[in-house]
Design a protein that fits this description.
The chain is mostly beta strands. It is built from four helices and 34 strands. The structure holds calcium ion. The site of calcium ion (CA) has 8 residues, from loops. The site of calcium ion has 8 residues, from loops.
Length: 361
């Protein structure tokens, strides 16, 4: 793990660790470009008409059918055909339960009409392509990139109106931002959203009923807008072993064990900005800063790259309620070197207020 971090340092520093505002603008532009590309391409649409798992008779001939002439198009066959063609193809699913695993290797829009009636029963993954998924239940979860990360890969995902279970959403070493909107992520005993060396925007989404709602590590830039993170054993676990930025706007982090945990003793440089949100009724601390905010090696590097007027290293809380948590509102630890709380309420926590947050509060 140390080798890829060193290898990726320069590329990701530029792409993922400017100020929060700059990250948001960059993600917006990238997403707009990806949609423009999708809408203007002359891709092929394959319409699935069978829930079977049979393969395509002749992948790459442009016809999705499991036996030549039978007209039966399964999801595996449609994916084989779409993978055979460059460009942004589409696969459309009627209601039903479809087999996986599905491996997408060419840019693809995969869609159905309603996630309540259309499910893919095993893992959906993309390691080198843009994937758009809408209105589908993914009971096996979604993997973007590869589990063994040796370099950045050109894999991204746009998720809209999906219900995701299984192992949740894992985005690993992706060189462009992904997005998740209008969706629900519930894995039971797994991690809802796992980000490693990846950027993502999450909006209008619920991440609930997971062991860990969100886990981020190493060169992550992630923004949450109108996201509810609730009923997880741990709401957000931010382990920025090198560098990361996380913003929450109009979010709820409520009724978890610990709401937000940041850092490890060796961690460096998290930008955590929370605005117009609620970090309440967690049974542990609202925000627990377990180190991870010291920034000795890279402070000068970062300040030279980014304008950090809105989101500097440390915890920044504005217009937010941190109330009724079972532990402290904000619990600090050795290593916390900057916390700023503005126009916020930190009341009714059982160990009230802030601890060890230093002179900068
Ligand atoms: Ca074919």
């Amino acid at each position: 793990m140390a080798s890829y971090r060193k290898h990726l340092w320069r590329r990701i520093l530029i792409g993922a660790t400017t100020s929060c505002a700059h990250v948001g603008r960059r993600l917006g532009v990238a997403l707009a470009l990806s949609w423009a590309f999708a809408s203007t391409s002359s891709g092929v649409t394959f319409t699935v008409n069978s829930p079977a798992s049979d393969a395509d008779a002749m992948p790459g001939d442009g016809t999705c059918e499991t036996v030549t002439g039978n007209g039966i198009c399964t999801l595996p066959a449609a994916i084989q055909e779409a993978n055979a063609f460059a460009g942004f193809d589409a696969v459309e699913l009627p209601p039903g339960t479809y087999p996986g695993p599905i491996s997408v290797t060419e840019d693809l829009a995969l869609s159905a009409e309603d996630p309540a009636t259309t499910m893919i029963s095993d893992l959906v993954s993309t390691a080198g392509a843009q994937l758009s998924i809408s209105r589908i239940s993914l009971s096996g979860g979604l993997l973007v990139g590869t589990e063994l990360c040796t370099s950045l890969v050109p894999a991204t995902v746009t998720v809209d109106r999906c219900i995701i279970g299984g192992d949740g959403v894992r985005i690993i070493c992706s060189e462009a931002p992904s997005s998740i909107a209008n969706s629900t992520i519930t894995t039971g005993s797994g991690t809802g959203l796992f980000l490693l060396a990846a950027s993502a925007t999450i909006a209008d989404t619920t991440i609930s009923g997971n062991e860990t709602g969100v886990h981020v590590d190493a060169y992550v830039a992630v923004s949450f807008t109108r996201v509810s993170i609730r009923n997880n054993v741990l709401g957000i676990d931010a382990v920025p072993a090198l560098i990361g930025s996380m913003t929450l706007n109009d979010c709820d982090v409520v009724e978890n064990g610990t709401g937000i945990h940041t850092g490890t003793t060796e961690g460096w440089g998290l930008h955590l900005c929370i605005d117009h949100s609620e970090i309440s009724r967690n049974t542990g601390h609202g925000i627990a800063v377990g180190g991870g905010l010291e920034f000795p090696p890279f402070a000068s590097v970062l300040s030279s790259v980014a304008s950090l007027e809105e989101c500097q290293v440390g915890v920044h809380v504005t217009d937010t309620r941190i109330e009724g948590n079972g532990g402290m509102g904000i619990a600090g630890a050795t290593g916390l070197n900057f916390a700023e709380v503005v126009r916020s309420s930190i009341t009714g926590n059982s160990s009230d207020g802030c601890s060890s947050v230093g002179e900068s509060l």
